[in-house]
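Archive entry. Fields below.
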Amino acid sequence: MKIEGENYQVFYNLANQTVSFQGTLRLNGLPEYVPINNLLHQIIEQKPENLTLDFKNLYFINSSGITMLSKFMIHVRSQKNISLIIIGNDTIPWQNKSLKNLQRLMPSLQLIL
Amino acid sequence: MKNSHTINQNESKFLAQIALLKQQVEELKIENSDLEMTLLTIIEHGDAMEAQLEEANKQLHAEINEKKIAEAKLKTMIEAVYQQKEDLEIIIETLTEHGDIIDTQLLEELNEVNNLATIDHLTGLANRRHFDQSLTDEWRRCLRENQPLSLIMTDVDFFKLYNDHYGHQMGDGCLTQVAQAIDHSIRRPADMAARYGGEEFAVILPNTNTEGAFNVAVKIQDTVARLKILHADSKVSEYITLSLGIGTLIPSSDNSPIQLICEADRLLYIAKQKGRNQIIY
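PREDICTED_STRUCTURE:
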């Protein structure tokens, strides 16, 4: 499963159950994030034991994007039986604080920076 | 006769007693019946009361259960609302902090873009576009304040020959060093050095008369001379030298920035014509 835009790519690798985010996400408001949100929810509906979100190469995400991710964290938290890992890159300014805040929404997630 | 009379009297008494007793028995029977009726009424009333109490008790228990269920639901709802409140607080905090970081990142990118738009990539000096804007701004300011505005135009002598001899990479290095020397020769915040094009540089000197501009030009020449950049094919020196033209005007409605550029450029041309490595004003 893959979603591509002008400056970004989001794709799911079933083999290692990893969603990779790449480029810069500057979509206009939450409605434009619906396809990515749907992709994430479809993966959760398959009830994987583990899921990894890889943000290592996501250089920019706007506030609507971080809101979508926050809501997704709450959704995954409610599933209770999915082990979530987030991989970040602490040299990218937004990731250090915002990914730690996502962990506050789902304390059980493993954050690797 | 007497005995017979007595017997009759006794019999009468006895019969009267029997009648009285019968009456008493009847009265007792009525009383008994009344009592039985009362007892029955009491029993039935007791049963009814008991049934009513049991019903009331059942209702009470049902109400208590309902209240317990409602209380549990309310507790669950309060917990859910509290969780949502906590989530929202975290999301707001996340968004606020994220917004701040993104603002900073965008501002840095904007500054970088602005720099790219105004800075000459090779030398780090202001580019031609920035020079044109600054000259117009300083022209207007000096016009308002009735102050002189000087412009130094300078050219690296025999730069084409330098490039031919040492190659373009060395040529770029030479231009960068000369640019830095020019930049280090000006001190006031409003003074500005720019790459005008190719090997030509310009220095804007607001509130500066010809004498002041000449001092700056000499300093530029000296600083470049101290670099001792070898120039094997120069016809005036073994090192890189500059030719400089200084134009000075007091801005007025009769002249313009273009005129100042033309004047400085004309004097630079004369400096070259006269053999280069000199200042003409």
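CURATOR_NOTE: Chain A has a mean pLDDT of 92.
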